[in-house]
Amino acid sequence: MTTAEIVRMTLLGDMTRFYNSKAWKNVRAEARRRDNNECQLCKEEGKHSKCEAVHHIKEVREHPELALVLSNLVCVCKVHHNREHPEKLQKQKKKFENEERW
């Protein structure tokens, strides 16, 4: 996958295609192996938790040339990934809450 293809995907808003690509899956697996499948941010805090996401240190939309560069990737848990991307939490639909209780 070339940088030009990644740029095109970001412009079209087609990041699903990028994240489903074989190139991404391979580099993501390599990052997990390198980081022993552990959240590196928890590790810095003296904690231990499983890697639940491979995070781009510099975002793909701003730096597509680094999208598949191993040194731009870090394994993180869900908590730390949500801290890095709080805007993605706001996009999630809230569950219907019925105040009336029987």
From TrEMBL:
GO terms for molecular function: endonuclease activity; hydrolase activity; nucleic acid binding; zinc ion binding. Signal peptide: none annotated. It holds the Pfam family HNH. GO terms for cellular component: cytosol. Residues 84-102 have a biased composition (Basic and acidic residues). Residues 26-82 form the HNH nuclease domain. Keywords: Endonuclease, Hydrolase, Nuclease. The keyword Transmembrane helix does not apply. Residues 83-102 are annotated as: Disordered. The keyword Coiled coil does not apply. Belongs to the HNH nuclease family. This is Putative HNH nuclease YajD. The lineage of its organism: Bacteria, Bacillati, Bacillota, Bacilli, Bacillales.
